[in-house]
Structure prediction request, 1036 residues.
Amino acid sequence: MMMIVAIVALGALAGASGLLLGFAAIRFKIEGDPVVERIDALLPQTQCGQCGYVGCRSYAEAIAAGEADINQCPPGGQGGVAALADLLGRDPKPLDPELGPEKPKMVAVIDEQSCIGCTLCIQACPVDAILGAAKHMHTVIARECTGCELCLAPCPVDCIHMQPISPTITTWKWVYPAAEARAAA
Amino acid sequence: MRFKTVTSPHVLADRSVGQVMRRVLYAMTPGIVALVWFFGWGVLINLALATVVALVAEAAVLTVRGKPLALYLGDYSAVTTAWLLAVALPPLAPWWLTTIGVVSAIVIAKHLYGGLGYNPFNPAMVGYVVLLISFPREMSAWLIPYGVGQPHALGLLDTLRIIMGGTGGITLDGLTGATPLDVLRTKLGLGLTVTEIRNSPVFGIVAGHGWEWATLGFLAGGLWLVFTRTAAWQIPVGMLGGLALIATIFHLVDPLRYAPPWFQVWSGAAIYGAFFIATDPVTASTTARGRLIYGAGIGVLVYIIRSFGGYPDGVAFAVLLMNIAAPTIDLYTQPRVFGARSG
Amino acid sequence: MTPPFPFHGGLKTVRHKTESNRETILPGSVPERLVVPLRQHVGAIAKPLVQAGDRVLKGQMIGQPDGYVSAAVHAPTSGRVVAVDQQPVPHPSGLPDWCVTIESDGQDRWIERTPVDYQRMHPSDLRNFVRNAGVVGLGGAVFPSAVKMNLSGHCERLEQLILNGAECEPWMTCDDLIMRERAVEIVAGIHILAHLLQPREVLIGIEDDKPEAIAAMNAACSGTGYQVRPVPTRYPSGGAKQLTKLLTNKEAPVNGRSTDIGVQCFNVATAYTLHRAVAHGEPVISRIVTVTGHIAQPRNIDALLGSSFADLIARCGGYREGVERLIMGGPMMGFAMHSDGVPVTKATNCILAVGADALVEPPVMPCIRCGDCVEVCPANLLPQQLYWHARAKEFDKIQDYHLFSCIECGCCSYVCPSHIPLVQYYRYAKNEIWALEKEKQRAELARRRHQARMERLEREQREREAKLRQKAPPRTASPLDGATAGQSPAEPALAAPASIAVNVERSE
Prediction:
């Protein structure tokens, strides 16, 4: 008798829990596939293609599909790998050294004296940050430039170079304070 | 002309961690004097031994961890931990007992968790609990205070000899006895009422004979700590308030089985714990409301352990239990930020 | 409860006011060379109106306000512009900024000054006049006053207009002296503010360690209905939020403005410059600067903007032996300067030279969670939690503890027994959060532009194919196909500029 009561009680409990879980699954269902969006949001949007994909979005899709690893984005740096690892619940790993080192942020600058107005860099720029027309001098909109370096190679006269962004009075930041006292070196 | 550049503020109050710790040591002296008066040289020998062991252990770990020795030894935190623990040990505790306790406190409870400021548990109480659990017999052998039964006339050398392992022909059994709270607990178990037990010679005016004067000393030192804002007032108020409240309730329900609140507050390590142990800032709550809750929690736990647990006193366990709760208490007792809507 | 209504926390600090407030304000001199920064206010940098070689008159606008939150900059004396370039400015970074350098012609000749009748002006015209006169908050925050003179719907009518003469920072006495000597003109400036903002009451908060200033302001206010309210001497009572609480018991909301609770607050020196601008047509070209500390004869100087710190210090008899640190502002919130070759700006309320004897740099110890910082925090924050998260660079969690309510007053660092540079941790965290936010916006912009480009390329491809099909029906097309395809790469190049042109903006 006791055993039957126990079985019935536990069975009822299991049934109720199951219903509750099923209801929750329907009620709180997440629409769409937000994981690509969330990966894309963590990528630096340099659109440089160093990862081997055309643009950050394609790389995000490849990561989500399990085709690409999380350490293929040099502009995102080690911090970017850590953020991706955190999002996807994986172990962080070092950047793939074959894809290039992590560099400080730079902008492309066109030497306007040497530019012949060939428009090849304009076609290469993934974010349309180069201004100009055929046979007219070109110039880079510094604010829009992501520093992807894709314009360097096509230039037939090598008049484009990368310039590091130096801090100005408006972008200067307070540094991280020196840590607690350690043993005298 | 070029100048040094650092961040504001450019003036600092004349304060330091060492100063905070030294104040705790000063505040302990009246209580220690009373303890020495009633329990003899052993108290001082324990203190000295604990100090030396603490400094050696601290220096050793600091060296291993690559921290600057002079700076951290000069902050008095190791000495403070040593004193807080030594005062709680039986006056004739053998040297190895003190050593094990202090080493556990400094090495395990403090440095294995990251050193000064990073330890989640009160180091002195970790050391005490390690001893209490591992060596219950040694830890309960307290000297009978001066003036109870026969006066003990143990000299400095005799005391030293006993602590260092020899008996020197002196029988310890005649000198040691149960603590007042132990007596209360044992006799309650035998069916006696609180009033009958209180007539025993181990009890004085309010609480244990001799002990009550040490308690007075610690209260005086503790009030000075609170007055100089070295210790937060909320913690002792919360702890003693919580203890008194729950003791009053039980005493009103059954005065024969439950000792009155003034006896509970004045007995054992309640006052000492409230002002010196629970107020350790590193392991306590940091918000004003949080400290009241933290203190009250300790007070209630002390009463529960004393009345229903397996040990005569429970300050150490209560403090350690509330140490675990401190971060959670802090999280839920954040003050209302300036300009935030109340409620 | 009656006022003052105490705020949480705060400190009794050292005072050191008597060093510089015993002597009257020293009239300024005209240095041979003035370096006038174009960014002397919160908001957009002023656009230069002059170039090297131009002659300027005293009070002539040389920098035009750029946008709503901005202010004009004027020539402090007559002379010749020798350069418009980047020069060292008083900033904690030591980095240069755009400045106009003027060589004085020694005549100090004014431009034609045109006072205005503020009572007959339309409010927006008056605000425009104030913006063009370069009036900004002279308490140190240098927020453009014209913006604060517009309630812009945050409240229907101002309850309290507060004049801040608390001056709680140690050493600093410039507001004390201006109230003693120029109280009547301050009150004239308050009339203008009151006319524009129509407050129910006007309260003037002054710390009670300035009896002379209180007496002078009381005398000047008699018959106006303005109330001079002494407040207890307790740092940081001069913080706008703290003074508002002291005088009205109202707290400005966390993510709001003081006008949300019907309060607006101006510094007394700001009211003075407002009066000079309106009643005399004189734009802001000078300010009172306290020169004090390890200085031969500390005192207050009515200094032309653009004079170098070194000039002012020389006029006060020079440094005393062993100066190690030069601070702009007070010792609690001021910034240490890299050099004394920087110009006085509208934010320069005090130049404090600190000797080695007064500087202690004790070693930093771990936080022992003593909670003293919690007790003194005037924003009622948990500084030790903020420190913990800033140290661990947990920028999400630090905002849960209301990092942005921190006013950087320095009380927590002042009392910290472990001497942790708490304020620097908070400044670091704030800067990082802002930078991350900017980075995110940049990334978002790049993402959108890349997407737009991809769509455009696709569209062009489609259009080309359509055109191709139209021109040559499939059957006869084959020989032409190759030629057309060969031309196509040039086409996107021509299309690109049109889509970019919209986004061309001046980059900094």
Notes: The beta strands of chain B are 142-143, 176-177. Chain B has a mean pLDDT of 88.
